[in-house]
Recover the amino acids of this structure.
């Protein structure tokens, strides 16, 4: 009789343990700290979650507390009936460890301010809610605030569409080019690329040719004081494009009126992506 009672108690203990949801999982990120604009890889170890560890695939349910879901990949999916395949995690060389690489501003299609200082996530089975332990509790990553570091050039906002007002900034005190340091009048040579309504490449579309920049008043920058120059534009109206054309990138170079002084080098660090929201 005592043996029977012990067996029943053991069965109940095992059954009770299995019935509990997996409360947590160990995780880390590389880099260990990151901002909303940094690429980060999340590593999750579900060794302590037997049901999840036995699943062939693991998915990420990710969100900003009180804010957006991962709009950049089309949402999280359906928690109970099927995750978004774009949020499938990748097994690592370590047993029961999975990873997922993302850049917060791109994943959430949101600004750093909208993302804030925390990102929540849940490692889960593709279709959770089906059995105990097929998901963890809510877990959270800390997001470092952005530290503004002034550069010789920047665009504001850093994410914009062709319909938005965009400002190009030139911070003259930060340039290493001696010719550019002494200018009182600063101009911008700028061009775009993109596709037409049929999807064909637009090629290199200039606002004005290099030798006509000085004759194009719209390309003269405004001096805001303290060596800061600015130029405001709305991409779809500023560049010679046709209805239906899509601008994908803006290129620019700060220069003197005569063109003899200009920011050296190519356009790698003097360009901005234009969002095309459907």
């Amino acid at each position: 009789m005592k043996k029977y009672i012990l067996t029943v108690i053991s069965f109940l203990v095992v059954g009770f343990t299995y019935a509990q949801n997996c409360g947590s999982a160990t995780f880390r990120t590389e880099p260990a700290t990151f901002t909303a604009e940094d690429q980060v890889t999340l590593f999750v170890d579900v060794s302590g979650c037997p049901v999840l560890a036995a699943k062939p695939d693991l998915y990420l349910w990710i969100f900003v507390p009180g804010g957006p879901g991962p709009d950049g990949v089309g949402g999280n999916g359906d928690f109970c009936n099927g995750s978004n395949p774009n949020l499938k995690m990748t097994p690592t060389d370590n047993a029961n460890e999975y990873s997922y690489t993302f850049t917060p501003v791109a994943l959430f299609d949101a600004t750093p301010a909208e993302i804030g200082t925390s990102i929540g996530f849940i490692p889960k089975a593709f279709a959770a809610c089906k059995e105990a332990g097929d998901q963890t509790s809510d877990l959270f990553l800390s997001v470092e605030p952005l530290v503004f570091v002034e550069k010789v050039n920047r665009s504001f906002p850093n994410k914009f569409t062709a319909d938005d007002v965009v400002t190009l900034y030139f911070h003259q005190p930060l340039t290493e080019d001696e010719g550019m340091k002494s200018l009182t009048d600063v101009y911008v040579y700028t061009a775009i690329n993109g596709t037409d309504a049929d999807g064909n490449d637009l090629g290199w579309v200039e606002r004005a040719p290099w030798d006509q920049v000085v004759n194009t008043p719209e390309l003269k920058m405004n001096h805001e004081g303290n060596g800061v120059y600015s130029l405001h534009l709305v991409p779809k109206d500023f560049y010679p494009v046709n209805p239906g054309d899509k601008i994908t990138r803006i290129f620019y170079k700060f220069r003197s009126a005569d063109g003899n002084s200009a920011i050296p080098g190519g356009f790698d660090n003097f360009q901005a992506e234009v969002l095309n929201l459907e």
About this structure: Confidence is low (pLDDT under 50) at residues 1-20. Helices lie at 2-19, 50-53, 104-108, 112-115, 178-181, 235-238. The radius of gyration is 27 Å.
